[in-house]
Design the sequence.
C-alpha cells in the first residue's frame, strides 16, 4: 500500500494549482493586419509627439483614466489621469524646446518593439539607447469604440556604465 507524505501531497497540490493557473491564462495573440496597423499608428504618433514636443498630439493619445510613471526626477509617483499626464508633459516639453530650434527637438528611435494582443488590450514594449542610458517604455492600449488609446505608460531608464 502506498502512503503519501504531507510534503508530497502539498507539492502535488501546488503543481496542480500551477497547471490550472497557467492553463486558463490566454496567450498573447498575433494582431491582425488591421490591429497591427492601428496600434503602430498610435506608437508612431506617440513618437512623433515626443520628438516634436507636441502636447496636443501627445495628450490626445491617452484615455481619460490613463495612468503613467514618468521617468525623470523629481516625479517618481504614478500620474493618476490624463489631466495629470498632460500637465507633467507640458512642463517637460517646454524644457525640451528651451534653447532649441524645432520642430524636431528630440530624435528618439525605438528599438526592439514588441506588441502583445489580449482581446481589446495591447501591450507595446520598446526601448531607446543613449550614450549612458537605456530608456525602456511600456504602453498599454485599450480599444474603445474602434480606436486604440493609451491607458498606461511606464517609462524607466537604466544607466549604462561608460567603459
Sequence:
Amino acid at each position: 500500500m502506498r502512503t503519501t507524505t504531507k510534503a508530497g501531497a502539498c507539492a502535488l497540490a501546488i503543481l496542480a494549482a500551477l497547471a490550472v493557473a497557467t492553463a486558463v491564462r490566454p496567450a498573447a495573440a498575433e494582431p491582425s493586419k488591421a490591429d497591427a496597423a492601428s496600434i503602430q499608428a498610435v506608437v508612431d504618433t506617440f513618437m512623433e509627439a515626443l520628438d516634436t514636443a507636441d502636447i496636443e498630439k501627445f495628450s490626445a493619445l491617452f484615455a481619460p483614466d490613463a495612468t503613467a510613471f514618468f521617468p525623470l526626477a523629481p516625479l517618481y509617483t504614478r500620474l493618476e489621469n490624463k489631466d495629470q499626464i498632460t500637465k507633467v508633459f507640458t512642463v517637460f516639453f517646454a524644457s525640451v524646446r528651451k534653447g532649441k530650434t524645432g520642430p524636431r527637438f528630440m530624435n528618439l528611435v525605438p528599438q526592439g518593439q514588441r506588441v502583445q494582443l489580449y482581446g481589446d488590450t495591447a501591450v507595446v514594449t520598446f526601448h531607446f539607447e543613449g550614450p549612458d542610458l537605456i530608456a525602456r517604455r511600456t504602453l498599454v492600449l485599450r480599444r474603445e469604440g474602434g480606436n486604440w488609446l493609451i491607458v498606461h505608460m511606464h517609462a524607466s531608464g537604466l544607466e549604462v556604465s561608460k567603459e
In short: The first helix runs from residue 6 to 24. The chain is about 35% helix and 30% strand. The chain has one domain: 30-159. The mean pLDDT is 86.
